[in-house]
Amino acid sequence: MSTPPDAPNDPEAAHPLGPHGPTLLDLLSYIYLENDRPEKAAVLLSALDELGMAGARQLVSLALAQLRAGKPETALGTLDRVALKGGLTSAFHLIRAQTLVALGREAEAEAAMRAYTDLRPRQDHSADSR
After folding, report:
1. Where does the record place the region Disordered (predicted)?
2. What is the torsion angle, in degrees rounded to the nearest 10, for the CA atoms of residue 112, residue 117, residue 120 and residue 121?
3. Among 115, 20, 16, 25, which residue's Cα sits nearest to residue 61?
4. What is the model's pLDDT at position 120?
5. First to last CA, the chain
6. Residue 33 within any structural domain of the chain
C-alpha cells in the first residue's frame, strides 16, 4: 500500500516547493537578472531566503538584484548577512564594491575591490585544478 502524498516521508512534502523547486526558482531568478528584471529576481530569491533555502550564492545574487533594482541599502544589509555566514567569495566582494559605490562610500568600495582582486586569482586557480 502506498503512502498518501502528504505523508511525512514523502520527499515532496519535505518543503513546499518540491524537490526541484529551489533550483527552478534560482534558475528563474538568474534569467530575470540577465534580462534586466531585477525586481522579479529579488522576489524569487527573497522567497528562497524566507523559506531557509538560500545559500550564500543565492544571497549574493539577491544583493545584486537589490542593487540593480535601486536599493543599495537593502543590498548592503543582505551582503552583511552573507559575511556573517562566512560567504566571502570574489563575487561577494565585487558586488559589495558596486554597492558601496552606489552609496557614495568610495574608500570602502576600494577596499572591497582590493579584496576582490586579491581573492579572484586564488579562486580561479582552484576552479582550474578540478
Report:
1. 1-20
2. -160
3. 25
4. 81
5. 46
6. yes
- Secondary structure in 3-state letters for the chain: CCCCCCCCCCHHHCCCCCCCHHHHHHHHHHHHHHCCCHHHHHHHHHHHHHCCCCCHHHHHHHHHHHHHCCCHHHHHHHHHHHHHCCCCCHHHHHHHHHHHHHCCCHHHHHHHHHHHHHHHHHHHHHHHCC
Which CATH number is 33's domain given?
A: 1.25.40.10
Residue pointed to by grid coordinates 551582503: 79
Domain count, the chain: 1
Please tell me the predicted confidence (pLDDT) of residue 8: 47
Kindly tell me if the per-residue pLDDT of 70 is higher than 70.
yes
